[in-house]
Design a protein that fits this description.
Two copies of one chain form a homodimer. Chain A is an alpha+beta fold and 156 residues long. Chain A has helices spanning 2-19, 44-47, 54-66, 84-92, 104-109, 114-120, 138-149, and strands at residues 27-32, 35-41, 75-80, 97-102, 132-134. In chain A, strands 2-1-3-4 form a four-stranded mixed β-sheet. In chain A, strand 1 and strand 2 form a beta hairpin. The longest helix of chain A has 18 residues, at 2-19. The interface between A and B is large, with 92 and 92 residues.
Chain lengths: 156, 156
């Protein structure tokens, strides 16, 4: 019942922000102990930011509000199954649980690349549509070695 | 040769920003026609933003500078193989090509979750460490139907 209310809010944000041309039809809400901590909606085209998906916007807002980079005891309600970028962000933010309404297949049918990107992720870098190539650098061997030994490092 | 210069800059950012406690040892540079458009480094712990990985920071800065959400003719030089979040962002930003120095396995050995998240992505939502559950909502059926028919939509 409470879950439906939060998902209803995410869906309402998706509908209303799409209608006012903020971006695609996507919304997200982050909740802790029943309290809404932050909301987000797609702002890619209105803010010139390809990373401004609803989930990313909501995670950044929640972290700003709570003064932390971990949302361990928070759940996210998102109007659509997260794309790999947003799913990755959900892991880095250490969210507890994720609820989604529409699926990646429905997103693909509406013209979004989510399913395509899911298919690209497991490929070897050089086989992807955006090809990746390894280019080692001695400073990066040094950087990881220093990080491992760094006494005052803050893990995340 | 030019590639080495750009990767050297990404590596230098990784080293220097880690030493000044901005975050983890990661840097990225975005280049168009040989010109550096934007730079980024990991700022997760210094900015309380779990999405502030070097690649995301560089992509957002490049888009802001160019006033667009697509970086079609740009390449990214990143000091480490991108995590799924950053790889997703590279697709949404439509970058042309990606160069990386260290690998996800080296990142894992240095204590970062990149490889773990790569392993989680292909699992069914309900089987993941951060479990996902489907919770349909009628407004979201409506939202996608409206988007498909929307005459003034801006695709991204």
């Amino acid at each position: 019942m409470t879950d439906d209310i939060h998902m209803g809010r995410a869906a309402k944000l998706a509908l209303e922000m799409m209608r006012s041309n903020k971006g695609g039809p996507f919304g997200a809400v982050i909740v802790r102990n029943g309290e809404v901590i932050a909301e987000g909606w797609n702002e890619v085209t209105s803010s010139n930011d390809p990373t401004a998906h609803a989930e990313i916007v909501a995670i950044r807002a929640a972290c700003k509000r709570l003064g932390t980079w971990v949302l361990t005891d928070c759940d996210i309600y998102t109007s659509c199954e997260p794309c790999p970028m947003c799913l990755g962000a959900i892991y880095w933010a250490r969210l507890r649980r994720m609820y989604y309404a529409n699926t990646r297949e429905e997103a693909a049918a509406a013209g979004f690349d989510d399913a395509f990107i899911y298919d690209e992720i497991p490929l070897k870098p050089e086989a992807r549509k955006i090809p990746g190539a390894k280019l080692s650098h001695p400073d990066m061997q040094r950087a990881f070695e220093e990080w491992i030994k760094k006494p005052d490092k803050i893990r995340y």
